[in-house]
Amino acid sequence: MAPTDDHLSVFTGTTVVSGQTTSVTLTAVPGAQITTTVRDASTGAPLPNVCLWPTSVSWPSPFSPGPDRQGSGSNPACSDETGKVVLTGLLANSYNIFAQAGDGVHGHQWVGPHGGTGQKEQATVVTLTTGQAATVPDVRMDKAGSLTGVVRDQATGAGVEGAKVTS
Predict the structure, then answer these.
(1) How many Å apart are CA 89 and CA 92, to the nearest integer?
(2) How many Å apart are CA 81 and CA 22, to the nearest integer?
(3) For residues 141 and 63, what is the distance between their CA atoms, to the nearest angstrom?
(4) Radius of gyration (Cα) for the chain, nearest Å?
């Protein structure tokens, strides 16, 4: 069920039995939100189209299904032309934020205290209470890096043609 007026419907498991009517009572609680601005770490210029994924501190990845957001299916919110982004519909929880750049210039990164970090464990933690509207410091996007190298067969040491490396 989608939230309305920034309220989240919260309920515990219900068993539905074939051929019977089951009543469910939902409790609406105000959703929390995070507001921030995304900027280039070097120039301070606002960056549009950077998508932020709130991920529970206890959850491994923003891309694995989880209980982080109600009603929006853990979808990100993306920055507008001024770099502003508002993440809404969040449960009271502690979050790390993953920034996904789409411009081919900046790298995907966890939001850290002084720019991006490659490790979730080093990311800034934002703790929200029910209905809280929090403004957090600007997200500073670092330029993308690159890796070069050769994939080799462990036994022979020969290069592996057509190998694909992912992180």
Answers:
(1) 10
(2) 47
(3) 20
(4) 20
Question: Does residue 133 have a pLDDT over 70?
Answer: yes
Q: What is the CATH number of domain 7-14+26-140?
A: 2.60.40.10
Q: Cα(88)–Cα(71) distance, rounded to whole angstroms?
A: 10
* Structure tokens that stand for 81 in this block: 């032309």
Query: Looking at this protein, which amino acid is placed at residue 42?
Result: S
**Greatest CA separation found in the chain?**
66
Q: What is the pLDDT of residues 62-101, one digit of tens each?
A: 765 554 444 333 568 999 999 999 999 888 899 999 999 9
**Exposure string (b/e) for 135-158, b if CB count within 10 Å is 16 or more?**
eeeebbbbeeeeeeeeeeeeeeee
Long-range contacts of 9-16 (CB under 8 A, 24+ apart): 9/70, 9/71, 10/70
What ranges do the domains of the chain cover?
A: 7-14+26-140
